Each structure stands twice: as structure tokens, then as C-alpha cells.
Amino acid sequence: MVKRAFALICLSLGLPVGPLPAAGFPQAEISNGLIRAKLHLPDAEKGYYRATRFDWSGVIASLQYQGHNYFGQWFERYDPKLHDAIMGPVEEFLTNGNTALGYDEAKAGGTFIRIGVGVLRKPEEPQFRRFNTYEIVDPGTWTVHTAKDAVEFVQEVTDPASGYAYLYRKTVRLVKNKPQLILEHRLKNTGRKPIETDVYNHNFFVIDAQPSGPDFTIKFPFEARATDDLGNLAEVRGNQLTYLQELGKGQRVFTELKGFGESAKDYDFRVENRKTGAGVRVISDRPLSKVIFWSIRTVLSPEAYIKMRIEPGREFDWRISYEFYTLPAPGT
Question: Which of 32, 231, 242, 332 is 20 to 30 Å apart from 187, CA to CA?
Fold first, then answer.
């Protein structure tokens, strides 16, 4: 009865009804007593996500805290090889702003790499298509270790043809006795060429199935400036981004945000919904290289970029923390 009522509410708001049935997708569930989260696990044959844009590890289908849910299905059409048919705080690696590792050097028919995905085939095309799903030549070797409150993902990828190779380790961990989730990353360059890339977390917040609108506020620790015209949909004032109206189907808010400094202290933002009282704070131990905000009716995404250059034999680590909380009731 509760599920049916929830589905009717979602339909009335124009939101996706919810995640598709597991249908044999490899999954894991973790909890620390305060938070309960369900994750989809990487698998080249049966995985929920098999496209070539986002890192296959750490896909969170749902995360519940104090009766609130922070992630979930936001897209209408599901296909495991669709570039954005994915949920949760997922990451994309980009080289030279908008291409992939080794893509520019590769000839048609040659290979390049998308970190967290594997070795891909370059077709005959004029330029890299970030949202395209490329042929996967080798997904590398994935190893997954699960515990009651954490999942560790390890991927090894080697592409002799391009000269790139890496060992990628990512752990999704719930902190003991705290409403906090941590993503811990370590990327080691095991190839013969330097790895230069940016990585950003798309976040894909779907908080309590609420439509993007004036009940949401996004807060930054710096005076933010929007570089794009947000029209009558949203505005950036001081350190906050707010919606001026509830987004309808087909409407979107998109802008790059300026104003942050060179310190990691500026990688610190909050997303709050005053209607349901759900909030989340996201912080990192690395400085920002770029900030994008993107939102449609069903999802909102502060996208924080980190830049790295890793020489052969060296490694780079970074950490992102999600602190979940509830807002005081109005008038208290």
C-alpha cells in the first residue's frame, strides 16, 4: 500500500517511479546502524551500468538516513549501456577538458582509456563524444571486497598499445556511529606515460523524490558567480544557489560557478530541502579545479572537479565525505 501511494505521488510530480527491479544485477548493501545504502557492483556481463562515461564503481542506488532517501532513479529510460543511466555519487574522468586518456593520440581503430571503465576502441570520428558508449576492448580486472559497512573496489587496466595503465582503488565506507559516508580513492600510474586528468563527482541527488524547485538551497563557502544566464529558473546570490520556480519537464538549470580559491576548504557545499528537512554536506581534501551546477526536474547535481597529474610509478589519492543531517523544524 505504501509503495503504491509513493508511486502515485511520483507519477503526479512527473518523477521516475523508482529503481528498476534488481533483475540479477550484482549488488551489495551496507549499514552502520544510522545509514543504510544499496550499491550496484561492476560487472562487464551483468552489471547495472555498462556504458563508458562514468566510473563503474560506487554506484549507489539508494541511501537512507532518518527516513530520508538521498539517491535514486532520476531518468525515464533505462539501458545498461546508456551513458547516464546511473545513480548516486558517481565520477567521470576527463582529459584536456573534454576528452579521454590517450584518445587524441590514438588513430581510428586504435585504443584509449576511460578510467574506471577500461580500454575502449576509437572509431572513425571527428572528435571525442563524451556521451557516446564506445566499444569496450578490455574492462580490466575488477576485484570487489564487501563488509557490513564498506565496499572496496579495485580495478587494474593495462593498454600496451597506448602506453597507459593504472591501478584504481575506491572504497565506499560508512563511518562508525556517524551519519557520514566517505569515498576514498587512490589512482596509481602503472604505465609508461603520465596520467593527466580531471575527475568530478556528478552526485545526482534525488532527495526524497522532491522536484527541483524553491524548497532546495545549495550553499557554498565562497561568494559564487554564475557564468551562464539562469533566466527565471534560478539565481546565484552571495554563497547560495536557489530556484525561482519549480522546474517543469524539459527545463534545466546549467552554469559554471566561479569564486572559489586554491584551498581545499572551498570544496565544501550543502544541499538542503526545507520541505522534507533533509540536508547533506559534501567536503573533500583536495582543492577545486572547476565547479558546474546542473539540474533538471528530477535531480540536482553540484559537480566539483579535481585536477591531477600522475607520473609513471606514482599515485594520487583523494577523499570525498558526505555528512547527512536533518534541518530544525520551522519555528524551532
Answer: 32
Q: How far apart are CA 36 and CA 27, in angstroms?
A: 13
- Coil, helix or strand at residue 8: helix
Helix (H, G, I), strand (E, B) or coil at 9: helix
Q: At which residue does the C-alpha cell 552554469 appear?
A: 255
Residue with cell 529558473: 233
Please state, in angstroms and rounded to a whole number, the distance separating the CA atoms of residues 31 and 64. Answer: 10
**Please, how many CA atoms are within 13 Å of residue 295, restricted to the half-sphere of its CB?**
31
How far, in Å, CA of 241 to CA of 226, rounded? 9
Q: In whole angstroms, what is the distance from residue 73 CA to residue 17 CA?
A: 8
Give Cα separations from 207 to 88, 192, 196, 276 (angstroms). 11, 43, 34, 9
The set of residues, in sequence order, having a beta carbon less than 8 Å from that of 67 and lying 6+ positions away, is: none
Residue at 113: amino acid letter: I
- Residues composing the chain: 332
Grid cell, residue 298, equals 528530477
Q: Are 166 and 115 in contact (CB under 8 A)?
A: yes
pTM value is: 0.92
Q: pLDDT digit string (tens) for 179-220?
A: 999 999 999 999 999 999 999 999 999 999 999 999 999 999
State how far the alpha carbon of 319 is from the alpha carbons of 94, 181, 322, in Å. 18, 11, 10
**How many whole angstroms separate alpha carbon 144 and alpha carbon 78?**
25
